[in-house]
Specification:
It is built from five helices and three strands. By secondary structure, it is α/β, with parallel strands linked by helices. The N and C termini lie far apart (41 Å).
Length: 134
């Protein structure tokens, strides 16, 4: 049976596969748990997709990935935590496409959305619907 959850697991596995041969020859990465920051509340779409993908990635890497929800201020609080993290390859930010509009909404954000992050993969898309009273 082909479900969305299974599709996302396969997508996560497929995205991580090309990097695995290089990692085995590196300095035994990962040697400690990986921190995944989700700048939205637990149970949000971003959180659910991230947990599905990181579960599969954790199994493939043989290392635990701890998901840390840091919601608030439209995702800028958690994103700022990720921007200040040690650049050692042990912190992942799972964000939404709203990340690109941050400079327009928050001109004094404590990070540069374009320069302080590198995109790794797109994990999916979900529709947004606005409903208003007539």
């Amino acid at each position: 049976m082909h479900t969305r959850r299974r599709h996302l697991r396969l997508l996560g596995a497929a995205l991580a596969t090309p990097a695995l041969p290089r990692m085995t020859h590196a300095q035994a990465w990962p040697s400690k748990q990986i921190r995944a920051i989700v700048p939205f509340t637990a149970g949000s779409t971003i959180d659910i997709v991230a947990r599905i993908v990181f579960e599969t990635l954790s199994q493939q890497l043989g290392q635990s990935i701890v998901v840390e929800n840091r919601g608030g201020a439209g995702g800028t609080l958690g994103t700022a935590v990720a921007a200040r993290a040690e650049p050692d390859g042990y912190t992942i930010l799972a964000n939404s496409s709203a990340h690109v509009v941050t400079p327009a909404i928050y001109p004094n954000a404590p990070y540069d959305a374009a320069k302080d992050f590198v995109a790794v993969s797109a994990r999916g898309s979900s529709p947004n619907v606005a409903v208003i009273s007539p």
